[in-house]
Write a structure and sequence with these properties.
- Helix content is about 35%, strand content about 25%.
- It contains 17 helices and 26 strands.
- The strands form eight sheets. A five-stranded mixed beta sheet has the order 12-13-14-15-16. The protein has a four-stranded parallel beta sheet with strand order 4-3-5-8, covered by helices on one side. Strands 17-18-20-21 form a four-stranded antiparallel beta sheet.
- Helix 2 crosses helix 4 and helix 3 packs across helix 4.
- The protein is globular, with a radius of gyration of 23 Å.
Length: about 500
């Protein structure tokens, strides 16, 4: 792990941003205060309905069962589960024991899961017998001492008597390892402590609008923010948990109408797929008061469209490494909320390097990576994290992400920022979502390729249509897409971010 400068530790503790409370303590306090709060899983495969107290009992029985099997503070508990009740039970049980939880996105395949298990060497692995493309493979976990399979033998891990209280644990010790995807050959294991994770939970909970309504959580709980939003923030503020184990806009609209739920944001894709669904009505729109957007590029065309419908839009910027760097309050001026990624949050410091790269540090910044070489490259001795993102700051301190260092097309020696081209593409009638990536070019090395998802019922544009559109927009000709590919949906990470490396690989393969 990285060395955190002593002056930062002293400041975070003096300000109360880092406390002596562990995640187990946080959960125990919240669950004790609201045991009757509803907990529901909306699923065609494994639906469940109950209350916090019932889930806590399962978690404490599991914690006792794992303790009988030798699990102690600092041991690793990995889980690969959909958004089911058992995922909460495993996470909460791990926190009560002071174990390090490793959530794995349920649609990861053999290669990713095998790499993660080999990296973290868990004492416990809990997974599903089957769900979607997930199938339990005993060979993957052959070296794991304790394995539980939901739908098969998970209940065998539960002790008759629940674990009381919380096992004492150092709050500065690791609490969670979250594996990112989509930007490197293998997932990167990001290590968070009880202190960084606890601060992130309190900070996010404190920024949500008080009248946001009962939220539907479809983001996978195997993803860092999905787990925080599903299993920590609701316990902290005593709000109901409503999980869906797949993102189905039709189901979301049904639950909004039937149960009074709402979808309050996430990746822009969640909002645009609701608006573009044939079942969407003004009654649904009335329940969508807020849209907190982040987790992927947030196009200005989308924020403007949502605002014009009367939705209060606010944006945020962060990563698995540093979850909440900037955000706009829902009460901020509209131009800040729609067109910037917000200003620095409590305790967070940001600055721009000479090349525009965003450097950040703060109480929710991770401890480092499971790979020491990655840690050494990403953090400096003063505690600054190199985000890999490029941005600009306005006179009021609001940050706008303009590009990623790796998200650049080099055409004939000239750099083209993909985000700039995507913004123009999204203004083309009928386009719901767009991504621009580098495609091989025999003459220039690379050129821009446009990959587009259309709204239902709109005619397919041609490359000539794109050229006319870009000409009208006034963008330099060398930035115009020279290929057009239409897709029904994009390959995505767990947070909904488009996996551009997959698009680049597919386009290159088609040209061979």
């Amino acid at each position: 792990m990285r060395t955190i400068p002593a002056e930062l530790v002293d400041r975070y503790e003096a300000e109360g941003w880092w406390t002596r409370e562990t995640i187990g303590d946080l959960l125990t306090r919240g669950l004790t205060a609201a045991p009757g709060t509803a907990f529901r899983v909306h699923s065609a495969v494994r639906p469940w309905e109950g209350a916090f107290g019932e889930v806590e009992l399962t978690a404490r029985r599991l914690a006792a069962g794992l303790r009988e099997r030798g699990v102690r503070p600092g041991d690793v508990v990995a889980l690969q589960l959909p958004n089911w009740m058992e995922a909460a039970a495993v996470f909460w049980a791990s926190a009560f024991l002071g174990a390090v939880v490793v959530p794995i996105v349920h649609f990861y395949g053999r290669k990713e899961v095998g790499y993660i298990l080999e990296t973290v060497e868990p004492k416990v692995f809990v997974t599903a017998d089957r769900f979607g493309h997930l199938r339990y493979d005993p060979e993957l976990s052959a070296k794991v001492p304790v394995v539980g399979v939901v739908g098969r033998d998970f209940d065998d891990l539960l002790a008759d008597e629940p674990l009381p209280g919380v096992v004492p644990t150092d709050p500065s010790a690791p609490a969670l390892i979250a594996f990112t995807s989509g930007t490197t050959r293998d997932p990167k294991g990001v290590v968070h402590s009880h202190q960084t994770l606890g601060f992130e939970t309190r900070q996010l909970a404190g920024r949500y609008p008080p009248d946001r309504g009962d939220q539907l959580t479809s983001a996978p709980v195997g993803h860092f923010i999905g787990m925080v939003n599903a299993f920590l923030i609701p316990v902290l503020d005593g709000s109901p948990v409503n999980l869906a184990d797949t993102w189905d806009p039709g189901l979301a609209l049904e639950l909004m109408a039937r149960d009074g739920l709402t979808v309050g944001g996430g990746a822009a894709y969640y909002m645009t797929s609701l608006l573009g669904h044939p079942d969407f009505t003004p009654a649904h729109l009335a329940r969508m008061k807020y849209a907190g957007l982040g987790g992927a590029g947030v196009p200005n065309a989308v924020t403007r469209r949502l605002a014009d419908l009367g939705i209060t839009v606010f944006r945020a910027y962060g990563s698995t490494e540093h979850p909440s760097i900037t955000a706009s309050a829902h009460t901020a001026p509209e131009d800040k909320r729609l067109y910037t990624d917000g200003d620095a949050l409590d305790g967070v410091e940001i600055r721009l390097a000479d090349d525009g790269e965003i450097l950040s540090r703060g109480p929710d910044l991770c401890l480092g990576y499971t790979d020491p070489a990655l840690t050494e490259r990403a953090f400096d001795e003063d505690g600054w994290y190199r985000t890999g993102d490029i941005g600009v700051l306005d006179e009021d301190g609001y940050l706008t992400i303009t590009d990623r260092k790796a998200d650049i097309i080099i055409r004939g020696g000239e750099n083209i920022g993909a985000l700039e081209v995507e913004e123009v593409l999204l203004a083309l009638p009928g386009v719901a979502e767009a991504a621009v990536v580098a495609a091989p070019d025999a003459r220039l090395g690379e050129h821009a390729a446009a990959v587009v998802r259309l709204r239902p019922g709109h005619p397919e544009p041609t490359l000539d249509d794109l050229r006319a559109h870009f000409a009208a927009a006034g963008l330099a000709r060398q930035k115009w897409p020279e290929e057009l590919h239409l897709v029904e949906d994009f390959p995505r990470t767990a947070s909904g971010k488009v996996q551009k490396f997959v698009l680049r690989k597919d386009i290159a393969a088609h040209q061979e």
